[in-house]
Design a protein that fits this description.
Number of strands: 29
Number of helices: 2
Helix content: 10-25%
Structural class: alpha+beta
Oligomer: single chain
Strand content: 35-45%
Shape: elongated
Length: 389
């Protein structure tokens, strides 16, 4: 073992501890960064000795390991566009040029155009539910920027609806059961559909749907063995100044229980102003209008990779896929092991300040000890240089 070898080994030790302090410095600097994932330095021994030659000194190498799979604490903010992920996965964002990336930093606010953007300038991406078709899972195709611009809700004529109810099988002949539904014409005017069902002989029922210009008559037949409706399964109801509404009634039954409506609804809506935007745990972004109408507008995909700790970090607290991380796979929240979306909250940094300060002290001590080895080697070289023949 030479003195130069010992000095080189101590230099590698000092370099390693310097890089460790650098990682600690970055962690401490980001202790308040939303969605930040801490890093740690791993050491690797470099062996210099072998059995075929005299002993040679080795050294140490360092590797920076990202801990992207750690869950940060979730802090409530009360802002509907602040988003946190509880569990695995990443939000999909894009920069001004449209280049996609992944992030856990969910502090989004609408820009001048109403598009959700975080502090680093990345736009939140999702699928527009108005576009039909399957959503790609192995790429970013079909994604668009989430727009929460406060645009008035235009009128939409009703075209379809459903009614699930039970008619009392023990009701006397001539008994009447009533309910109502609201439909909309092309201008958004409400049309009340009054449904009156009268018990007939042999378990049959006759119905009258009032509200259209001409009442709609319908005769209902049920299977005596199961109580399920056999005909008709749907009813066409023309709406004045609107469309023909297809009312699905295949879920109706005639059982020995009082008349009750369990589910009912008709699409369409009147014009209204936007009241607020809500984002569900499943990632659906819905617009809530002043009249109470709820319109799902977007769905946020949640991205996953096989090895999240090997994602390539990019400025702005975002990551992109790398060869070591594996390809990005998109899916819905709460499916395939992906986490759930929590609106009105942010994920805090995973940095533990006390732990980082402890690591910094350890690195400082390690650096000082390696510098002592270097100093000792330097002093021994001075002795050799001053030897007299």
């Amino acid at each position: 073992m030479s003195l130069f070898g010992a000095m080189r080994t101590s230099i590698s030790g000092m370099n390693a501890q310097t890089l460790r302090i650098g990682a600690v410095s970055e962690n401490i600097a980001n202790v308040s960064t939303t969605g930040y994932k801490r890093q740690r330095t791993e050491f690797e021994t470099i062996c210099g000795s072998n059995t075929l030659a005299p002993y040679y000194t080795g050294g140490v190498a360092t590797h920076l390991q990202a801990l992207n799979d750690e869950q940060g604490s979730v802090q409530l903010t009360g802002r509907s566009t602040d988003l946190a992920l509880r569990g695995t996965g990443f939000f999909v964002v894009s920069d001004d040029d449209g280049t996609p990336a992944l992030t856990r930093a969910g502090a989004f606010v609408p820009d001048a155009d109403g598009r959700l953007r975080n502090a680093a300038g990345y736009y939140l991406m999702g699928y527009d539910l108005a576009d039909a078709g399957a959503q790609a899972s192995n790429g970013y195709s079909g994604l668009t920027r989430i727009d929460v611009n406060q645009v008035a809700l235009t009128a939409k004529a009703s075209t379809s609806g459903f009614l699930v109810a039970n008619l009392d099988a023990d009701a006397a002949v001539g008994a009447v059961s009533k309910t109502s539904l609201i439909a909309y014409d092309a201008l958004g005017h409400k049309t009340k559909l009054d449904i009156e069902l009268v018990k007939g002989a042999g378990g049959a029922w006759s119905g009258t749907i009032s509200g259209p210009e001409s009442p709609v008559q319908v005769d209902l037949a049920f299977d005596p063995a199961t109580g399920k409706i056999t005909s008709p399964l749907s009813v066409a109801i023309p709406i004045p100044n609107g469309e023909t509404v297809t009312l699905e009634i295949s879920g109706m039954t005639q059982l020995a229980a009082p008349f009750a409506v369990s589910q009912a609804g008709i699409d369409g809506h009147a014009p209204s102003q936007l009241d607020r935007v809500e984002i569900g745990a499943d990632g659906v972004v819905a617009a809530i209008y002043e009249d109470g109408t709820v319109v799902p507008r977007y769905k946020l995909p949640i991205a996953n990779v096989v090895s999240p700790n090997n994602l390539a970090a990019v400025d702005g607290n975002v990551w992109r896929e790398s060869l070591a991380s594996g390809p990005v796979v998109l899916g819905e929240a709460q499916t395939g092991g992906r986490g759930s979306v929590m609106a009105g909250a942010l994920e805090a940094s995973t940095v533990d300040l006390a732990s980082e300060l402890t690591t910094m002290i350890e690195a400082q001590r390690g650096y000082a000890a390696n510098s002592k080895v270097f100093q000792a080697g330097s002093e021994l070289l001075d002795v050799l240089m001053n030897l007299k023949a």
